[in-house]
Backbone:
């Protein structure tokens, strides 16, 4: 066809709006990552509430040490005798670890892609609380990640950052016989160190921020568009975040102020 | 109406071309008036520059009544200007005080390369449309529209999303440079139109893929809905995932 | 029929005979059948192009509004090879997007006795018998399926609670035939059309050339064979040839400087086509909308339309006292002059646009204007709010009230709106025959750029209809009929000397502007032109004023070429250069507009001549002026040549309007 474009100054093509890109989008696709984040995030929310329920046993009126340690023991032997020994615990830990890896990987990938798409210019913050929290999810997430490592070293493994009195040996004798790890004592000893207690409290605040936006994001990422669903989740996000921060952060405070003792 | 004259310092981004280095230039306007729109403030500046034989600041605008979506610039770092949900042509000098500095920048996003000064290339949004934001009905083949019932509420809801003026402020406002509000608005609108339902899943796959190709991910921050001059509701961003997840369970086009 | 024998000697000395010569009677190629059957008859006789041959035909479409996007998409769907040009960054910005009220369609579903015949009657009478009856029939007939099509491709038309399409009564007609999507009907139609175009772009049938402004038409062997465009980003001037060219580039209302049109809407494409030989139809028919937000400050860049639906519940008044400085709330009822209600008791505030505009303008010019520049009257909702309650008023008009408040900072629920007439739509445009083809074979026109349908005055909600019908349902029939005769012929070779010559002329024009080295930017001259047009060629015209205007325009044109300054170069994005070219064209078109207004020695619709009135009403002269003036460019630089297409009315007999 001879209806080509011509010009006195050269045969440049008129820049035609580019066709839809034929190269595939970045893999894994962002929407998949977001669904993964929402799914793993939901697991963490459930876990946190479950964990909190256990933690709150320190407030039981008579012999909280017994209740707490019994609970810890029960956890280790969950689904016995269907699954032998600590099988369930390790499956549980494995699942959580997998979720964590996926959550962190997705979060970091999304963050990197976001930075790249934004370009070199900063953005001012124009909106409400969620805007600030939303923008800092990556940082709150990394703080929480560091905290998880600390927390495991402090109270589960007992290495590096544990209290001097930490013991993973079965030193607590149960009334019905047998002895288990004195998780309660480990907890109290750890929180008796005031910088650790303060650290836990601060991190719980960060967790609350992360949760309040994270739970709100779950409804978005799963595609919740109905007005009522969204309103409920927006409310739930704050309620759950508040429960988690108040419930958990109160424990180190109670230890420091002498409300919880051995 | 007042005869009040305001003195404003204008910091304006100047950039000769897509690959050229950009810089801010400072100008002073001493006879701004509160009822001027921010675009008229730029008109005023350009008039002055032309009289001084200086290249005027290139910026885009067309209808200047908030519907065409042509105008698009950052004012003090905020897309369109200080007032929420108002396009640049409807933003006014009355939002500022005499002596204030007003900083004009092009929309900032990797997907919006600067063409000149305050003009950016927003065709990336149209490539999302081309990827599938359309309905495959040829002229003359449609059935009587009255035989396709659409409820009153569905029509209104479709219009809530269909009002997008395609200005790109959502992308410019987003710290991730995401186009979720835009894409979600289109997906939501078309999914509510009787013929649009026929390709709902196919559309979601292709539009989301094209969107991810050029734009960033969404982190539910919400800046987009605050900047949007067409008041596209925030749930539009959830529509993207809703439609894409839905499409993930389907092998068919609808 | 004598083709306009009016001879009036004006004070300045020029007579119409010094300005124009009468040319020939034109054949509009309207079928002989009854107007009702004309379109069916014509379609039956159109030649077709075999589907396998369609891709061999290259068609250029300029403009991506409702008509342009529709034509491009429809022809793309049929399989033609379409190239689409727009000066916008993306197709959907075109100014069709700003239309508010709705789109008429005589689907006649209600029992309010609407029909295509009634639609035609309304359109023809509304246009004061200066448009083709057959065109109006086609508009009504195809308008029925426009709604179906636009709904199917994405326009979410308002629905009743029963699920059926909702309609409203609009623009003074007595039936309910206006389909709408809130106050943003134009936007929804335009987006749907632009998306349909995007579909063809993705499919490869249409090639989109954005940020390209058409600057000339390539005519060879008497046929339109291509266009010359300037890439607005790189500044490069290029040509593209094709078998046919379709212009859908909108109206020329911006000639009045500050109108309700978008800043970039311009007349360059149609004007340059005119200068290549396309006739210009009825340039003096300019619609002036009564309710726009007036200019309130020096730097206000344009006027903004406030939908005429506001007049349903708002009352228009001006103070009885000249230059009354009081706040409107302090002016007692007795000192308010509800001039429309008093002068037109039957229709009151709902008189047609031109009548309302003229009366408002009369009040302002007589010194009764209000507002900082004393250039407006009040549109007061106090009575409406008292009668209906704030809630209902808010339901009906909130988006308009919000927009008004956004733009003016005043709350219309409390303070009356200030409104003034503003140029809004141009009924005139390139002359086309019944097949939408101009006097240059191969050059087609659609939408506001053409003269068709609206006669001397356009009915509300008919412009969206004409854009859609032209694009989707007229041009796709008419253009192939022309193309069929060109089968086997390649488009004009790009090495053809005519192509190089046209490019060279465009480049010379650009160079001439850039080299001019004057003292003022183009906007300065545009403002001056607007002032002249506003005084002498607006809501009411008289021979003396028009003659004077022609002299002033000629002077201004000379001044422009002596004194215009275009900063920057041609090799990059240069908005001053774009403006300069457009203003240069306005300065020529303005003269033709005034000559046409001077020539048309009658009042008709929006063209109101003070020397042709009865009790303040326009007085048509059907004996001498029942034709379309189709102006021909005098290539030799002589007098303007006015050809004419006689208009006959069979279905809607000629009748004088009366709104008293």
Residues:
């Amino acid at each position: 066809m001879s209806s080509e474009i011509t010009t006195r100054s050269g045969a440049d093509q008129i820049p035609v709006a580019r066709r839809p890109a034929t190269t595939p989008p970045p893999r894994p696709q962002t929407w998949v990552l977001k669904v993964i984040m929402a799914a793993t995030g939901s697991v963490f929310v459930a876990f946190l509430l479950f964990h909190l329920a256990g933690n709150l046993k320190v407030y039981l009126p008579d012999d909280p040490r017994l209740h707490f340690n019994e609970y810890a023991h029960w956890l280790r032997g969950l689904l016995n005798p269907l699954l032998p020994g600590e099988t369930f615990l390790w499956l549980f830990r494995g699942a959580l670890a997998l979720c964590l890896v996926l959550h962190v990987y997705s979060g970091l990938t999304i963050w990197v892609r976001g930075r790249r798409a934004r370009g070199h210019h900063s953005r001012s913050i124009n909106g409400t609380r969620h805007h600030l929290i939303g923008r800092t999810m990556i940082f709150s997430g990394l703080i929480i990640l560091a905290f998880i490592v600390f927390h495991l070293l402090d109270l589960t493994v007992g290495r590096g950052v544990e209290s001097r009195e930490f013991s993973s040996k079965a030193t607590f004798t149960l009334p019905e016989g047998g002895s288990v790890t004195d998780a309660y004592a480990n907890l109290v000893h750890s929180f008796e160190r005031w910088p650790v207690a303060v650290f836990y409290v601060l991190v719980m605040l960060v967790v609350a921020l992360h949760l309040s936006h994270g739970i709100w994001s779950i409804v978005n990422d799963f595609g919740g568009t109905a007005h009522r669903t969204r309103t409920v989740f927006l409310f739930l996000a704050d309620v759950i975040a508040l429960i988690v921060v108040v419930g958990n952060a109160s424990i180190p405070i109670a230890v420091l102020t002498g409300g919880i003792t051995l | 109406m007042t005869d009040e004259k305001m003195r404003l310092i204008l910091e304006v981004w100047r950039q000769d071309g897509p690959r050229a280095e950009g810089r801010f230039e400072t100008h002073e306007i001493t006879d701004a008036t509160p009822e001027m729109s921010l675009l008229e403030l730029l008109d005023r500046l350009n008039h002055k520059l032309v009289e001084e034989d200086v290249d005027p600041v290139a910026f885009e605008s067309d209808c200047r009544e908030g519907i065409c979506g042509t105008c698009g610039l950052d004012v003090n770092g905020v897309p369109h200007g200080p007032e929420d949900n108002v396009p640049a042509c409807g933003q006014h000098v009355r939002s500022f005080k005499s002596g204030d500095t007003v900083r004009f920048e092009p929309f900032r996003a990797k997907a919006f390369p600067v063409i000149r000064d305050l003009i950016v290339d927003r065709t990336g949004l149209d490539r999302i449309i081309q990827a599938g934001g359309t309905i495959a009905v040829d002229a003359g083949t449609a059935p009587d529209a009255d035989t396709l019932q659409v409820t009153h509420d569905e029509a209104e809801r479709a219009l809530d999303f269909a009002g997008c003026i395609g200005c790109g402020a959502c992308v410019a406002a987003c710290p991730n440079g995401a186009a979720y509000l835009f894409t979600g608005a289109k997906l939501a609108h078309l999914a509510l139109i009787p013929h649009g339902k026929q390709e709902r899943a196919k559309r979601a796959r292709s539009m989301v893929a094209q969107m991810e190709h050029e734009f960033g991910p969404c982190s539910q921050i919400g800046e987009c809905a605050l900047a949007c001059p067409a008041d596209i509701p925030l749930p539009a961003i959830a529509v993207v995932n809703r439609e894409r997840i839905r499409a993930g369970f389907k092998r068919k086009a609808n | 029929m004598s083709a306009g024998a009016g001879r009036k000697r004006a004070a300045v000395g020029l007579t119409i005979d010094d300005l124009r010569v009468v040319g020939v009677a034109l054949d509009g190629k309207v079928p002989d059948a009854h107007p009702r059957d004309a379109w069916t008859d014509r379609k039956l006789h159109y030649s077709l192009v075999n589907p396998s041959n369609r891709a061999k035909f290259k068609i250029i479409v300029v403009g991506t509004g409702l008509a342009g996007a529709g034509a491009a998409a429809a022809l793309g769907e049929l399989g033609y090879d379409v190239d689409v040009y727009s000066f916008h960054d993306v197709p959907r910005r075109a100014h069709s997007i700003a239309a508010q009220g709705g789109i008429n369609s005589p689907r006649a579903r209600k029992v309010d006795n609407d029909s295509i015949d009634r639609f035609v009657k309304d359109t023809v009478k509304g246009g004061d018998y200066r448009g083709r009856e057959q065109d109006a029939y086609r508009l009504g007939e195809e308008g029925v399926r426009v709604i179906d099509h636009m709904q199917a491709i994405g326009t979410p038309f308002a629905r009743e609670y029963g699920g059926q399409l909702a309609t409203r009564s609009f623009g003074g007609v007595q039936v309910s035939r206006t389909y709408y999507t809130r106050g943003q009907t134009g936007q929804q139609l335009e987006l749907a059309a632009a998306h349909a175009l995007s579909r063809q772009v993705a499919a490869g049938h249409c090639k989109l050339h954005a940020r390209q402004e058409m600057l000339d038409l390539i005519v060879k062997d008497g046929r339109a064979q291509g266009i010359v465009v300037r890439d607005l980003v790189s500044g490069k001037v290029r040509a593209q040839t094709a078998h046919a060219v379709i212009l859908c580039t909108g109206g020329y209302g911006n000639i009045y400087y500050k109108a309700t049109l978008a800043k970039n809407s311009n007349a360059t494409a149609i004007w340059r086509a005119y200068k290549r030989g396309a006739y210009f139809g009825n340039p003096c028919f300019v619609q002036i909308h009564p309710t726009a937000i007036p200019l309130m400050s020096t730097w206000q860049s344009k006027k903004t339309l406030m939908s005429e639906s506001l007049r349903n519940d708002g009352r228009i008044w001006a103070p009885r006292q000249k230059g009354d400085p009081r706040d409107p709330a302090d002016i007692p009822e007795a000192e308010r002059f509800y001039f429309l209600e008093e002068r037109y008791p039957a229709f009151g505030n709902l008189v047609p646009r031109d009548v309302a505009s003229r009366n408002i303008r009369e009040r302002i010019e007589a010194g009764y204007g209000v507002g900082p520049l004393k250039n407006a009257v009040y549109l007061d909702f106090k009575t409406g709010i008292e009668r209906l309650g704030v809630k209902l008023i808010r339901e009906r008009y909130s988006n308009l009230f919000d927009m008004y408040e956004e733009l003016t900072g005043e709350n219309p629920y409390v303070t009356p709106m200030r409104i003034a007439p503003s140029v809004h739509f141009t009924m005139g445009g390139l002359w086309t025959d019944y097949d939408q083809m101009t006097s240059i074979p191969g050059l087609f026109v659609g939408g506001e750029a053409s003269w068709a349908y609206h006669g001397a005055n356009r009915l509300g909600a008919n412009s969206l209809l004409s854009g859609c019908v032209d694009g989707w349902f007229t041009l796709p029939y008419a253009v192939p009929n022309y193309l069929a005769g060109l089968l086997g012929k390649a488009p004009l070779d790009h090495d053809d000397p005519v192509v190089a010559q046209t490019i060279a002329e465009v480049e010379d024009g650009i160079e001439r502007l850039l080299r001019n080295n004057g003292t003022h930017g183009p906007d300065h001259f545009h403002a001056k032109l607007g002032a002249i047009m506003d005084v002498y060629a607006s809501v009411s015209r008289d021979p003396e004023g028009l003659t004077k205007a022609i002299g002033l325009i000629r002077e201004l044109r000379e001044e422009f070429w002596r004194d215009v300054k275009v900063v920057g170069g041609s090799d990059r994005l240069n908005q001053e250069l774009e403006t300069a070219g457009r203003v240069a064209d306005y300065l020529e078109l303005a003269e033709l507009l005034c000559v046409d207004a001077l020539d048309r020695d009658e009042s008709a619709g929006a063209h109101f001549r003070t020397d042709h009135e009865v009790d303040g009403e326009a007085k048509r002269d059907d004996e001498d002026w029942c034709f379309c003036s189709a102006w021909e460019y005098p290539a030799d630089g002589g007098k303007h040549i006015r050809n004419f297409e006689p208009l006959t009315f069979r279905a809607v007999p000629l009748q004088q309007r009366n709104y008293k």
Notes: The domain at 6-116 of chain B is CATH 3.10.20.30 (Ubiquitin-like (UB roll)). Chain B touches chain C through 83 residues (CB under 8 Å).
